[in-house]
Every structure is written in C-alpha cells, then in structure tokens.
Amino acid sequence: MVRNFFKLIYRNLLRNKGFSAINIIGLAIGMAAAILIMLWIQNEESYDEFHEHKDRIYEVWNRVPIEGKITCWNSVASLTGPALEKDVPEVAHAVRVKMNGNSLFSVDDKKIMKSGATVDTAFLQVFSFPMLKGNPSTALNDVHSIVLTEKTAKSLFGHEEAMGKIIKIENKENFTVTGILKDLPDNTRFNFEYLLPWSSLNYGEGQELGWNDNSTRTYVLLKPNSNFNAVATKIKELKQHYSSEAKMMKWEMFIYPLTRWRLHSSFTNGVEDNGGRSTFVRIFGIIAGLILLIACINFMNLSTAQSEKRAKEVGIRKVVGAGKTTLITQFIGESVFITFLAGITAIIIVQISLPSYNQLTEKKLFINFGNIYTWIAFIGFILFTGLLAGSYPAFFLSSFQPVKVLKGTFKKVNAFITPRKTLVVLQFTCAIILIICTIIVKQQIDYASQRATGYNKDNLVYHFMTGDIPKNYTLIKNELIQSGIAKSVTKTNSPLTERWSNGWGQDWEGKDPNDKTSFDRYLSDEGLGVTAGLQFIQGRDFDLEKFPSDSTGLLINESSLKVMKFKDPLGKVVSDLGIDWHIVGVIKDFILTSPYERTRPILICGAKSRFMTFNVMQIKLNGNNATTENIKKAAAIFNKYNPDYPFEYKFVDEAYAQKFDNERRQGILAALFAGLTIFISCLGLFGLATYMAENRIKEVCVRKVLGASVTSITALLSKDFVKLVIISFLIAAPLSYWSMYKWLQDYEYRVSIHWWVFALACLLSVTIAILTVSYQAIKAALVNPVTSLRKE
Predict the structure, then answer these.
(1) Neighbours of 137 (CB within 10 A)
(2) What pLDDT score does 657 carry?
(3) Three-class SS of residue 639?
(4) Strands (E), 348-468
(5) d(CA 755, CA 764)
(6) How far apart are CA 61 and CA 81, in angstroms?
C-alpha cells in the first residue's frame, strides 16, 4: 500500500510537471525565507541566555523626572555597586563594567591594539563566559592581572602558552595573564577582547563627582530565592540615602532583568513600552509567517485549480469504496511529500544565501546540523507547512460527490466569491502591504539622511589621542598645517558625531527654579568653528592666543539659547560642575547624536573643564590636495611623533553615515522579503493563468473565429486577475497606513505619509499582475483555432 501511495504521488508529479515545479519552487523559496528570518529571530531572542545564573542577573537603571518627563537610562554612579553589596543583603555580587577604547598591547617587539573592559573581580562569577584556563573566582583578584579571550591570546603569543606571560599596556604597566576565555559568541551584549580588574582603574576626574557621576554600567546577581519586590523596594531610594540632590530630585533606581535586556529595553515616561528591538522581532516574525502563508496559498490554489483533472479520480475511488478519511490522508500525504522536496531545496537555498545574509545582518547565523533538535525542528517545520498547504485542497477534493463528478456538474460557474479568489486577494494584500512599507521606510531613511547636519563633513577626519599625541599635540598640529595637509586642527572630548557627556543642574541669571533641562556637553579648544564649519549667529569661536580667558569660555547652540532666554547672551555666565563659564558665541543647531531626534541644547565648554578631557583630534584636510596624498603624509607625521601607535583615522562623513545603518538594514531586509513575496505571488498567479488559459482555450478559439482580436482576448483573460489585485490594494492600503503611522511615531524627526506612495504601490502591483498573466493570455490568444476546434 505504501508503495502504491508513493507511486501515485510520483505519477501525479510527472503528469503535471509545470504545476509541480511551481509548487516546489514557491514552497522552497517561502520556506527558505521563513528559515532565514527565524534564524535571525532565534539569535535575537537568545542574547545572553547562556549564562548559568541568567534568572538572577539584573542591570541597575536610573529613573528620574527630567524636563517634565520621567527618563530612564542604564548607567549609574560608580559608587552604586559597592553600596548595593553593603546595603542590600539579597545582592550576592554587584559588578561594574567600564568599556575601554583601543589600548596598545606590547609583548617583546609585537605591538597590537586591543579593546576590552575593566570589571569588578566577581564579573566572571556573575556571567558564565566559558573559561578555558584559569579560575573565574580568582583570575581578576590581583591589581595587575589580565584575562584574555582565546583569539587575543593567539594574536599575542601564537601557539605558545599564554598563562603567566607578561603584557605591557600603553607602554606603562605590566599585567600578568591569569585566565583565557573562550571567544565570545555573537549573541551577547558584551564585546571585549580582554578584562582588567577594577582595582587597576584610575577613575580620575569622574570620581570627584561621587554620586553625581552616572557613567558606569552596574550589574547585580541576587542570591537564590530572593524576593524581587523586596529587593526593588530597597534599591529604589538607595541613591537618595547618599545624595541630597538625588533626594531633592526624587531620584529612583531599579533593577532590570537580563532576559529583557536585548529586546525590551525601551521606556516611555518611566514605564517599559512595547518598543525596542522586540518591535523588529515581531515585524519580521509576521513577515516570515506571511511569506510562508503566501507560499502555502500558491499550493492550495494550484491544487484546487487542477480539481477538474482529479475529480474523476476522486469520484471513481469513492464509488469503489474509498472513504473521505482515506482520501484526505492521501492528499495530505501528497502535500507533505511535496513539502519535503521543497524543504530539502529550501535548506540548499539557505546554505547558499547565509554568507550574504550574515553580511547584511552583521551576524554569524548558521544551521547546526549536528544537533538533534535542529532535525526535530526541521521535520516539524515540514509537517506544519505540509499540513497548512495541503489541508484545504485535501478537504476540498475529498468532498466531491461521485454522481455530480461523473456527470461533470460539480463546479460552480462564475461564482462571485470563491475560495481561490479569496486566497489570491490574501496573497496580493500581503505583497502590497510590504511594497508600501518598503517605500515608506526608504523615504524615512532618505528624509533623515538629507537633513542639514549644521556642520561641514567634507574632508573632516578625527583621530583618538593615543600614546604621545597629547604631549606632542601642538607639534603635530603645526606640522599638519604648515605642510599644507590640513587647513585647521582642533581637539575635543569626543568625535563630532557622538555625545560622551550630558547632565543638568546648570545655573544662570534668570533661571526658573523648576527648570530641569538636560544639556549635552562638549569640550573644545580653539578653532572648532572653522574646523567643523559651525555657523555662528552671535559672537565668535574660542581663540586662546588672543583671549586666554576663553579657557572658561562657552559656546551655546540655538536650542540652549531658547532654554536660557537671554536677549543678549554674550558675556552671560553659566555655572556648571563647579566652574563659571562665560558665553563667547552662539552657533546654529547641529546634529550631535541621532538625525532622527530633535536637536538638543548643547554646551561647548572651554579647555578648563574638570570633568571632560581631550580625547580626539579633529582635522580639516586641505581639499586642494588628493585625499590619499593627505592621508599618506599625515600618517608620516603621526608616526614621527607617536611611533608606538598605528595611525587610525576615521572620516566624519563615514561615522555620520553609520547612524543610518540600522534603518538602512531594515529597509534592505524589508525590500528583499517584499520582493520574495511578490515573486512567490506571481508564481502562483502564473500557474493559475496557465490553468485558466488551458481551460478556456476552446472559448478563445470560438471568439477568434467570430472576429475577436488578440488584444480583446488578452484583456478578457486578464481582467479577472486585475480586479482581484485592485481589491487587494483596497484592503492593504489602510492596513499599511496604520502600521507605518505607528512605526513613524518612534521618530521625532519623521517623514509624512503621502498619497502618491499608495498610488505607486497600486500601479506597481497591477503592472506586475498584468505582466505575469499577459504572457499566458497572449499565448492563448495566438493559438490557431483550427488546432483546438478540429475535433469538435
């Protein structure tokens, strides 16, 4: 019986080669797309899930009323960790993490730049990063100990034993290797190549601010069976206990579970909302379901379209005693078998696509074929898809009544609504929604990228002040300018595209006591205006040679001026972090952080800042020279004055362009899956058009004999499908408008939704449908009537 079952499937596949190929290809592409999306979703949902104590690990957050709203963020005072261990008995460990920029590692004559983190000694007890060598409980106990990742150890020592070896960092202190970690997986929020103990950190100026400093990530491991609500209550007002300012501001702290870090770390007015990456996971999960559904709809449509060919088979089998259950089992079995073939094809497509897909998503996704659960999931996926695709055809075909079938009267002629029409409408509704959403996502990216930055990015590069650059800064600056490589040079606390400091509590003449505006802080010496191309509304740039007092000077932007409400701001004093700054200039707003957000008030402080330090050189290259020539000569100068460190520069326009990477990636993925959806829908439409043309070939020939033109016949055969696509558009338009309107609300600086987007989507979908159907329609219209009617 089993042999006959497979023989029947084989014969049916061969008898309808075209339809079988369309079914298998459509299902394979749909399944491949769904698998790729599910791999991405699985990776997103698995972030930091490998830690042994994941259910007891929390991150400490602030919750503070600022500017009329409750703001939350996940960096706290460095004193918070020790205070938690001291004051909250349920806390087993509290660990602080400070990410370090690139540091110079020296081993004999080998010098390599590495980035890592400085952490408390219990870090490796809280987080379960696999340790290949060393003891996680003691590896960071010594002030001069260092833990390396396996890759870092190999890059420094090759195949030699790394444990116990000495590494000099920044040409200053020696550290002994006390542990080797397995290389970090890509599904963790942490990204470090080495770990240093917190005791090795000279915290510097930030320490002076004590509880007013909020720049340290802090994590806690609760003891087993701890009552979360009791712990949350104790932590809530911890900072108020140590800081009178925090008490005045009603400052709260709370702990946020590890399981929600990746996808749910989004808050509105102090309460977790449904934003964050969970939105993208839900969206792409829906897209995966839609693509798979559309592929299954193709199978349903093409299977039921061939009902006339298989109707007599069903009728005869029922006459000879076959029950409905037997027939359903047979048809479901056929669909599962076809789905199995499609599944094998889908795996091949996935394996071929993964390298490019990983490059696009910036992940390291793979299918673990050595894991039994992978095969269980794959078999379950095939069975689910096969049942979904085959359920309707099975029940539809098995429901034929033998008497009507054998008389040829089982079909409903010219029914206004049929399951097949409904399924086609559903297919194209999904496709049109994705088309509209893709267009609006691209519009939003273009809208933000075309926004005026407020400064000139052309020929502007920056370089971090590593090694001997700080002490040789003046020599490097002068040589760059005198050699004609640069037009101007300045130094700042951070790149022009990043905010490294912000805060509130500033004071000025006439300030409203209830004003709690938060300002972005930036540090600069002289020449920032000409180097970055800032536009001055009033006053001037810093000039320490002519005006030495500019070391306590202040530049403010338009947004700051609106907050301070000065009619004549020049010379006015603004107190911040214990220094009285005097305003020397007002500049137009420029984008320091995200181009999707409103411009924030910015304070650009002079060189005397106690809190910020100069970390970056900003260099305006001479545009009269070739860029490659400028870079080559600049490298020689930096190597001359900072020989131990590589010349690692970055163009500001490239750094700014990276701000759009996330949205651009989403747009590309949306366009890719929209294209796949349309392609799969067109496969089904092509199959239906083929079947329609075959069924109506005699009608076409009779019409041709009576004088109908090829154009009129083509239009006749195409119009039914065009009607279905237009109905799909009428359903898709409001749904896509609603979804895109909700998506755009996450951006303060956003595009408007225009009517022409929907008109374009309608035109595209109708054009695609006509092109898909017209081939078969024209082919049928061109058939010689004699060939088809000579037997009549």
Answers:
(1) 11
(2) 87
(3) helix
(4) 460-464
(5) 14
(6) 12
Smallest CA-to-CA distance from 48 within 285, 272, 257 is with: 257
User: What six digits make up the tokens of 230?
Assistant: 């009791």
Backbone angles phi, psi at 566, to 5 degrees: -80, 130
Cα–chain center distance at 249? 35
Distance, in Å, from the CA atom of 692 to the CA atom of 679, rounded to the nearest integer, reads 20
The alpha-carbon radius of gyration of the chain (Å, integer) is 34
User: 3-state DSSP call for residue 186?
Assistant: coil
DSSP SS3 for 300? helix
DSSP-assigned beta bridge partners for residue 556: 586, 603
Sign of CA dihedral 16, 19, 22, 26: negative
Tokens in use for 8? Answer: 């029947």
Which residues on adjacent β-strands are paired with residue 59? Answer: 219, 256
- pLDDT value at residue 602: 94
Which region, left, alpha or beta, applies to residue 362 given φ > 0 means left and ψ of -120 to 50 means alpha?
left
Q: Name the amino acid, one letter, at 313.
A: E
**Non-local CB neighbours of 323 within 8 Å, separated by 6+ positions:** none
Per-residue pLDDT tens over the stretch 99-116: 888 889 999 888 899 999
Cβ proximity of 411 and 310 under 8 Å:
no
Which pairing describes strands 460-464 and 602-605: parallel, antiparallel, or unpaired? unpaired
pLDDT in the model for residue 503 = 81
Model confidence pLDDT, tens digit, residues 413-422 = 455 566 667 7
Backbone angles phi, psi at 646, to 5 degrees: -70, 155
Task: Report whether 634 contacts 649 (CB < 8 A).
Answer: yes
Angle between helices 277-305 and 372-398 (to 10 degrees): 40
Q: What was the pLDDT predicted at 205?
A: 43
Partner residues linked to 271 by β-bridges: 268
Separation between Cα atoms, residue 364 and residue 43, nearest integer Å: 9
Strand, helix or coil for residue 179: strand
Cα distances from 270 to residues 278, 316, 514, in angstroms, run 18, 69, 20
- How many contiguous H segments (helices) and E segments (strands) does the chain have? 26, 27
Contacts by 39-45, CB closer than 8 A, 24 or more apart:
39/365, 39/366, 39/367, 40/284, 40/361, 40/363, 40/365, 41/281, 41/284, 41/285, 41/288, 43/186, 43/187, 43/363, 43/365, 44/187, 44/262, 44/263, 44/277, 44/280, 44/281, 45/262, 45/263, 45/281
Using alpha carbons, select from 280, 275, 106, 277 the residue that is nearest to residue 189.
Answer: 277
Q: Which pLDDT value is given to residue 20? A: 74
The ranges assigned to domains in the chain are 75-226, 460-658
Q: E-assigned strands of 203-244? A: 217-222
pLDDT (tens digit, 9 = 90+) per residue, 67-96?
Answer: 778 889 899 988 999 999 999 999 999 999
Measured CA to CA, the distance from residue 617 to residue 469 in angstroms comes to: 9
* 626-635: long-range contacts, CB 8 A cutoff, minimum separation 24: 627/459, 630/459, 630/485, 630/486, 631/461, 633/483, 633/485, 634/480, 634/485, 634/486
pLDDT band of 128, cuts 50, 70, 90: very high
In this structure, what DSSP letter does residue 613 have? -
Mind listing the pLDDT tens digit for each residue in 700-758? 677 766 777 767 777 777 787 888 889 989 999 999 999 889 888 878 888 889 899 99
| Coil/strand/helix, residue 11 | helix
Q: What is the dihedral of CA 640, 646, 651, 657, to 10 degrees?
A: -170
Task: Indicate the DSSP class of residue 549.
Answer: G
Strand intervals (E) in 190-348: 194-197, 217-222, 252-257, 267-268, 271-272
